[in-house]
Amino acid sequence: MLVLMSMTGASFAHAAGRSSWAVPTQVDIERGNGFMVYGMFGNPGECTSSNKFYVKKEHPQYDKIYSAILAAFTSGKKIRTYIHDCETVLWYSNASVTYNILMPNGDVQIKN
Length: 112
What we know:
By secondary structure, this protein is mainly beta. It has one domain: CATH 2.40.50. Helix content is about 10%, strand content about 35%. The strands form 2 sheets. Strands 3-4-5-8-7 form a 5-stranded mixed sheet, covered by helices on one side. Strands 1-9-6-2 form a 4-stranded antiparallel sheet, with helices on one face. The longest helix has 14 residues.
């Protein structure tokens, strides 16, 4: 199992927790700001939108996480994340919709 982790502070926390294990079904790269991952992940951050999570370009392990997510996507492997925050991502919706955000103090795990 691959685990990517790092530690820093948090921002707009609602709740925190682990997503469900799921195979990524879609990955969107959003205008150079980050990427959204879709799948049956549930709603670990208790955000207004579920079954997807977003990784900001500013994440210190962005490239490593992106590579791991693409590897899981192309091979059909399951992933799960630890989510601390809900935030808006205006490319996808208005300010009233929040998404699970993978922050630097979260992690990504991959398994068969």
